[in-house]
Design a protein that fits this description.
Elements: E1 6-9, E2 20-24, E3 32-39, E4 43-50, E5 55-65, E6 68-77, H1 81-118
Antiparallel strand pairs: 1-2, 2-3, 3-4, 4-5, 5-6
């Protein structure tokens, strides 16, 4: 995760529904709770919600074909005027850039791993 200095697992070391963790980016990094997950033949979905239930992220990983996987991260903000305005003004651009950079890092890592395994 781009900008993450640490990941603090707060109640379990193994991530599962109900697990709390904090991705430490700055002093205001929220505690996130794994609130759902699903697994199908070609798709894994992980849902995380902050403790205050203001924001939620849904990460979907789908295998499209051999050695090709698509990762999608959707973010949701509580449908309340004040949190939506604050999010849009203060966090949206920063988070969009951070997730984009994180996706590029993940892509590079996976390609390097794939190329190493083929060699």
């Amino acid at each position: 995760m781009q900008g993450a200095k640490d990941v603090q697992m707060l109640n379990h070391q193994l991530n599962r529904v109900g697990t709390k963790h904090r991705c430490v980016v700055d002093k205001n990094s929220p505690v996130m709770v794994t609130s759902g997950s699903t697994r199908a033949a070609d798709t894994i979905t992980l849902v995380e919600t902050d403790e205050k239930k203001i924001v939620c992220t849904v990460c979907t990983i789908r295998q499209e074909r051999e050695a090709h996987t698509r990762v999608r991260i959707d973010g949701f903000v509580k449908n309340d005027l004040v949190p939506r305005i604050l999010f849009t003004l203060l966090f949206k651009k920063k988070l969009t850039n951070m997730f984009h950079a994180s996706g590029e890092n993940l892509k590079r890592y996976c390609e390097e791993l794939h190329n190493t395994q083929r060699a």
